Every structure is written in structure tokens, then in C-alpha cells.
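Exercise 7b. C-alpha cells:
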């Protein structure tokens, strides 16, 4: 095996937390929390302490609209994404003069908006989502840590190898779809068996515990869709965008016998979860918060229209996770690295795999569906208006789900043995495309649609 095996847990990929952005909200909150823990290991601190946070690249360009400033305050207060109250979270920094007290070694340090610096200059960093935390004592830096928010709520600390940190070895090592399929053939096993075996070896959880945690993730998705179908009104931010999911849902119900009601229902489900994300409510990174409407929308459709049972839906999530692992490992799920190809493109591919696997299709069809979905998102820009995860993000979730469904239909319609492009190949193309794409189109709001509606 030339490349290191994937050691990502399903529950690292599917994380429950507040919107609107996994890379700009969840990641920075986790980085701030990690810095707080490290600061608490310091000794001989004086009473004259200060914490400064410097945001670079995409975090600086669109951090205000994505709540990055609130996220770092939350993390320094000791909050974590999976347990924080979203209502309390959205009240942070409502007023720029608000002061918060954080505690380091029983010493209270005041922090406010001026402690967060949105750096506009160039910064030599390996990732466009970079944060630097500094603890100063008597105006001298006594602790400095640099973090990268690499997409989907994953973070890396400078000088740290996350793969090397995990000393657990998956039972069936793979880094490509080719290797994944070789395991299935050699051991005469299913995708479900392989994914569960690896999750058990990486986390130490039992099969029953893994299924329970998948159920928890699915229930969080279910709640996000249901809330979004109920909630009406204007989303937070200066765009003043009105929620559309409840309108679509009522329209679909009134056209229940019409041929296109199916797509209207799916659009409503995806936009419901995505609008909840934009409002800062609790969603599931799938694989990111910006793409948190695609898989939940597909799941809601499969459960309530196809009436798949709990086990079938669990297995569909495992298929989605397998594709998500491959993309994250060999390209990226970060909008700041890949554009929206990395977020909606990845989610669409994962959803196409989920649809195929739930329908009982072969692993070749699952692969073909995921490949088709990525292929038709190649080069997609990430250009949110005003830095808010609203336009074009919310509608884009619905479009990603529709493409996923069509990818599933196309993959199911012929002999996949003659598929010309493999999933591994298209992921390589995805990575190259992301590298070649101008940074203006990768979550900076400096080009594209972000400039086409400046009146917003």
C-alpha cells in the first residue's frame, strides 16, 4: 500500500453541531477549546494576561458572516460544538462592547471583539483557513499555537500529524476504492461488514454501539429537516433572505399526485436542513455544514417516501461515509481548498452512494453513482454573498441532492463494468481542479456570485 490507510471514524465525518459552517464555525470553536486546554498547562502565570486571536485567509475574508468570531469566543469559554446551546451561541458578540471572562488556571481573563483580528494581508500558511492564538503575559507571548480548519469541522495543529496520532489500525486498510473493492472480493464481505469492522477497530465500540450512534446522527438530521419545514421568516444577516422550505413543502403536498411533486418534496427537505444551518441551528456535517442539507434531504425522502427500515438507512450512511472518507483522504471536503466542489460535490457523491446501496445495488453501481455525482460538480465555485451560507448555498444543497438522485439513476441504468472513469480517477481530477482554481473562487467572497449582487 503506497498511501497511508484511512483512519477516520464515521463520527468524525458526521458531526452534530451548530451552523452555519463546519470549517468557519465548528473547526475554530474546537481549535479555541484546544488552545484553552494547552494554556491551562502553563505555569507561573502573572495576573496581567491577554489572549489574541488572528484569523487569516478565508477565515478572515468570510469569518464574520460565518460566525468565526463567535466560535473562537465560545471555544475559549470552554464550549464544544456537540454540546453548546445554539441559542446562547448566536447571542455571543451581539454587541461589539460585550466582554467575556475566560478562565486559565483559575485566573480570569477578559476578552472581547477587539481581541480578534481579521488579518487582511498575505500569510505563508499550508492551508487557507488559518488561526493563530497567542497568550500574552505582561505583553510577552508565552504561548502561541497555529491551527488549520481543514473542512468538515476537522482541525490540525501546526507540527501535528493527525494520522500518526491515531495508533489504532483499521482491520481492512484501504486508501482507494480499488483497495476497498479488493477487500470485499477477497473476504467475500459486504460494504457494511467492512465499514463496521474498521469502525470497531478504530473506536473500540461494539457493533450495537456504532448503530446507536448512527441512529443519533440520523435523528439529528431528521430534527433539522422537521424544524426547517416548520420555521418561517427571515434568516439572520444583512441579506434578509426569506426561508423557502415551508412554502415548497406545502406546495408539494398540494401537488401530491403531480409528476414533479417528488422533486419539490426533495427540494423542500434539503432546503429545510440548509436553512436551519444558515440560522445557526443544530445540524450534521455531511460532510460539512455548508452541505448539511443534501444527505439529510435524501435520508428524509428514503425514510418517509420509500419507507426504508432503520437498518437499511444505517447501511446507506455507511456507504456515504466510505465515499466521504475517500474524498477527504485523496482530495478535500474544504470549500477553501476545493471550492463548492469539495462541499456540495462531496455530499452529492455520498448521497448517490447512499441511494444506490439502500436500493440493493452492487458496489460497482455505488462507485459509478458517486463518480458521476462528483464529475458533474467539477470546478464548482464557493462564492457566498456577504460571506453568509445562504446564497447560493441553500439552493445549491437542493441541486446537489437532485444531481445525486440522477447519478443513482444513471449508474443503475447500464452495465457498470464498462464505466470509463473510476471513482479514484475522478477524485484525483477533483484534487487537481481544486489546486488550479483561483483562490478568489474558494470561500473568500472576492469573485463570482459574491460580487454579482453587491446591493445585498
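Sequence design result:
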Amino acid at each position: 500500500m503506497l498511501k497511508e490507510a484511512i483512519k477516520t471514524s464515521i463520527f468524525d465525518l458526521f458531526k452534530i453541531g451548530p451552523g452555519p459552517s463546519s470549517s468557519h464555525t465548528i473547526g475554530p470553536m474546537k481549535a479555541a477549546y484546544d488552545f484553552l486546554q494547552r494554556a491551562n498547562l502553563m505555569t507561573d502565570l502573572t495576573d496581567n494576561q491577554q489572549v489574541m486571536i488572528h484569523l487569516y485567509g478565508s477565515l478572515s475574508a468570510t469569518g464574520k458572516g460565518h460566525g468565526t468570531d463567535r466560535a473562537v469566543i465560545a471555544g475559549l469559554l470552554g464550549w464544544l460544538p456537540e454540546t453548546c446551546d445554539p441559542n446562547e451561541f448566536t447571542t455571543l458578540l451581539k454587541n461589539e462592547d460585550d466582554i467575556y471572562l475566560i478562565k486559565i488556571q483559575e485566573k480570569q481573563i477578559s476578552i472581547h471583539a477587539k481581541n480578534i483580528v481579521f488579518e487582511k494581508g498575505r500569510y505563508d500558511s499550508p492551508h487557507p483557513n488559518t488561526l493563530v492564538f497567542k497568550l500574552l503575559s505582561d505583553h510577552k507571548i508565552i504561548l502561541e499555537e497555529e491551527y488549520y480548519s481543514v473542512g468538515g469541522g476537522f482541525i490540525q495543529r501546526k507540527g501535528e500529524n493527525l494520522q500518526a496520532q491515531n495508533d489504532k489500525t483499521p482491520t481492512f486498510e484501504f486508501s482507494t476504492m480499488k483497495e476497498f473493492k479488493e477487500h470485499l472480493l477477497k473476504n467475500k464481505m459486504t460494504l457494511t461488514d467492512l465499514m463496521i469492522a474498521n469502525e470497531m477497530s478504530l473506536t473500540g465500540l461494539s457493533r450495537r454501539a456504532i448503530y446507536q450512534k448512527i441512529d443519533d446522527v440520523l435523528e439529528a438530521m431528521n430534527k433539522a429537516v422537521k424544524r426547517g419545514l416548520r420555521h418561517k421568516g427571515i434568516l439572520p444577516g444583512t441579506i434578509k433572505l426569506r426561508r423557502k422550505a415551508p412554502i415548497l413543502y406545502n406546495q408539494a403536498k398540494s401537488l401530491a399526485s403531480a409528476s414533479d411533486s417528488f422533486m419539490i418534496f426533495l427540494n423542500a427537505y434539503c432546503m429545510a436542513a440548509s436553512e436551519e444551518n444558515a440560522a445557526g441551528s443544530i445540524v450534521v456535517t455531511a460532510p460539512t455544514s455548508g452541505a448539511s442539507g443534501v444527505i439529510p434531504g435524501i435520508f428524509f425522502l428514503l425514510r418517509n417516501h420509500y419507507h426504508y427500515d432503520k437498518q437499511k438507512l444505517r447501511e446507506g450512511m455507511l456507504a456515504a461515509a466510505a465515499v466521504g472518507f475517500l474524498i477527504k483522504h485523496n482530495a478535500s471536503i474544504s470549500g477553501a481548498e476545493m471550492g463548492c466542489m469539495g462541499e456540495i460535490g462531496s455530499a452529492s457523491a455520498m448521497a448517490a452512494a447512499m441511494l444506490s446501496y439502500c436500493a440493493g445495488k452492487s458496489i460497482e453501481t455505488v462507485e459509478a453513482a458517486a463518480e458521476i455525482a462528483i464529475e458533474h460538480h467539477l470546478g464548482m465555485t464557493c462564492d457566498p454573498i456577504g460571506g453568509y451560507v445562504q446564497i447560493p448555498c441553500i439552493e445549491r444543497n437542493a441541486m446537489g441532492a437532485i444531481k445525486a438522485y440522477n447519478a443513482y439513476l444513471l449508474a443503475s441504468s447500464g452495465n457498470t463494468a464498462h464505466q470509463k472513469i473510476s471513482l479514484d480517477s475522478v477524485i484525483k481530477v477533483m484534487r487537481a481542479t481544486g489546486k488550479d482554481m483561483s483562490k478568489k473562487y474558494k470561500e473568500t467572497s472576492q469573485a463570482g456570485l459574491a460580487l454579482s449582487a453587491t446591493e445585498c
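Instructor comment: Residues 207-230 form the longest helix (24 residues). The first strand starts at residue 16 and ends at 18.
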